[in-house]
Write a structure and sequence with these properties.
This protein is α/β, with parallel strands linked by helices and about 220 residues long. The chain is built from seven helices and nine strands. It has helices spanning about 1-5, 15-25, 40-65, 115-125, 145-155, 185-190, 200-210; strands at about 10-15, 35, 35-40, 70-75, 80-90, 100-115, 125-130, 135, 140-145. β8 (about 135) and β9 (about 140-145) form a beta hairpin.
Amino acid sequence: GLLKEIGINPIVVHGGGPQIGEMLKKKNIKSNFVKGLRVTDKKTVKIVEEVLSKDINSKIVNDIILTGGKAIGLSGHIDNIIEAEKLNIAFKDSDSNIEKILDIGFVGKPTKINCDAINKNIAKGYIPVIAPLGQDKEKNIYNINADTAAGAIAGAIKATKLLLLTDVAGILDENGKLISSLSFINSKKILNKKFITGGMKPKIETCINAISHGVK
């Protein structure tokens, strides 16, 4: 609400890892992660879609409304906001040192962001709350890392700022100390270092991509 009053138009892109994990556990579906991304088969993507675009999205919208804001729930795949394609992960086999491609199912990466629905709602005074799901030409639905989706949307809309909210302190150096600021060049340098673990790699990549696309 305060941001709106001072003339900033926030756009919220949310994830839902813990809630998706809970729901999969309830339904006895095992979760596997590769490089911080959830392996997502047909059954899993259905649950991901339900949890993200229904449960979490409407909860965030309601929370904003309860604090006096005007919010609207959008989903990357329903509102044609995020066009996506399958994300294949390349990794080197430690025995043969041959690069292999890992198929992690219905996990996608944004190929194109259509800003129409976002801009229309901002013009009406709404805070768009976007679930990070994408769709390809064949209408396959993809689970997209929320940070990646946020960065792609920020780049497409030429946002002034991109803020990534995380449940950890931030990026840690090789001694486990917090790195308080990183230049564009240094962030590229540390990207493939051993100490960059878990979900931090996609976060750094997201920031690099967003800045490359004109986010200030």
